[in-house]
């Protein structure tokens, strides 16, 4: 090949690379340095400019919440905005921009280890919000009208954690005054404590009822003993369900018991007489749902016939 032609080709290739680089770098650089065109698309959805005047985030720039603080994240957003929004060359179906990351929140709200009082509540976020996203409780702080499925803090979540950690469940521990009336009317607590609470109160987490209610006087008249069920209720529900005060069927159908117990509960007299034949035919699998081997040993091995029974020693592994 002619050396002059070869040099010309190399020169043109170099120019093409430079032009391609500038075509990519200049728009990305401009949008990275000044990402100010959010309102050009979001104006019709009432998201334009700054958050509404009713928000504590009025005056905060869009990128402060929706874009990460690092240079890499800013450049990535600049590329996304230049070639996904202004020129549609790449897909814009990316929820990372609309979903506010926790790192954006803690850049300003870095006092998570202190007790915060706002909206009638007292909270220490590093403990109470452990394992949760900021938007799990604060989804409507900037654009409440644009959130189709608002999420907020819930009494049940707080009480479940307080119960597990044996923390105080006194109202004054968390509540400092009247709550903001703008809180969503949806969620478990407003439903279980609403006008139709007699029909809906069982839909909540019943292990938290005792924080506010004296369950003996409030629940027992209708439901009998053992309600609301404690976390260890399964281990003691047998004697309670057999008592004269039990009203299990007010909430549960027989099929609810049969799914675990296999055989009719409590066992009728006929079952006691026939259970040996049932075990011989069906095996011990159904019995083992509730019984340990020691239950069989106490009668079938330690019991003496005829003439009474020998002393029954404690059997290791027996259920209390």
Features:
two-stranded antiparallel ribbon; 320 residues; 2% strand; 2 strands; mainly alpha
Give your account of this protein's structure.
Among the domains are: 3-105, no CATH class; 106-222, no CATH class. Mean pLDDT is 76; it is low at 307-320. A two-stranded antiparallel sheet has the order 1-2. The longest helix is centred in the N-terminal third of the chain and has 31 residues, at 3-33. It is mainly α and 320 residues long. β1 (115-118) and β2 form a beta hairpin. It contains 16 helices and two strands. Helices cover 41% and strands 2% of the residues.
Average pLDDT, rounded to a whole number, is 76
In the predicted model, the low-confidence regions spanning at least 5 consecutive residues are: 307-320
Order of helices and strands: HHHHHEEHHHHHHHHHHH
Number of helices: 16
Shape: elongated
Q: Tell me roughly what share of residues is in helical segments.
A: 40-55%
Structure at a glance:
With 320 residues, the chain is mainly α. The protein is built from 16 helices and two strands.
Please specify the SSE layout and strand pairing:
Elements: H1 3-33, H2 39-42, H3 62-66, H4 71-86, H5 102-106, E1 115-118, E2 121-124, H6 125-128, H7 155-164, H8 171-174, H9 188-192, H10 197-200, H11 215-218, H12 220-223, H13 237-242, H14 254-261, H15 269-282, H16 293-300
Helix pairs in contact: 1-4
């Amino acid at each position: 090949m002619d050396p002059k032609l070869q040099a010309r080709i190399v020169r043109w290739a170099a120019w093409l690379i430079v032009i391609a680089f500038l075509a990519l770098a200049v728009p990305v650089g401009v949008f990275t340095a000044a990402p100010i065109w959010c309102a050009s698309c979001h104006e019709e959805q009432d998201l334009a400019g700054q958050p509404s005047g009713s928000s504590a985030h009025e005056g905060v720039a869009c990128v402060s919440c929706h874009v990460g603080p690092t240079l890499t994240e800013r450049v990535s957003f600049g590329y996304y905005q230049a070639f996904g929004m202004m020129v549609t060359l790449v897909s814009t179906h990316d929820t990372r921009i609309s979903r506010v990351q926790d790192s954006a929140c803690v850049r300003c709200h870095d006092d998570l280890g202190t007790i915060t009082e706002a909206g009638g509540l007292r909270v220490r976020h590093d403990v109470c919000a452990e394992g949760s996203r900021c938007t799990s409780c604060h989804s409507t702080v900037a654009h409440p009208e644009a959130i189709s499925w608002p999420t907020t803090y819930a009494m049940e979540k707080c009480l479940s954690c307080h119960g597990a950690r044996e923390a105080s469940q006194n109202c004054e521990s968390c509540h400092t005054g009247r709550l903001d009336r703008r809180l969503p009317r949806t969620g478990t607590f407003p439903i279980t404590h609403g006008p139709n609470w007699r029909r809906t109160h069982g839909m909540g987490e019943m292990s938290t009822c005792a924080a506010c209610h004296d369950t003996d006087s409030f629940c027992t008249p209708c439901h009998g003993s053992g309600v609301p069920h404690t976390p260890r209720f399964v281990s003691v529900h047998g004697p309670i369900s057999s008592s004269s005060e039990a009203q299990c069927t007010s909430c549960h159908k027989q099929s609810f018991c049969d799914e675990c117990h296999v055989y009719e509960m409590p066992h009728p007299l006929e079952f006691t007489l026939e259970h040996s034949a049932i075990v011989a035919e069906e095996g011990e699998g159904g019995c083992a749902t509730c019984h340990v081997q020691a239950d069989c040993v106490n009668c079938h091995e330690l019991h003496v016939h005829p003439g009474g029974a020998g002393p029954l020693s404690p059997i290791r592994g027996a259920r209390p």
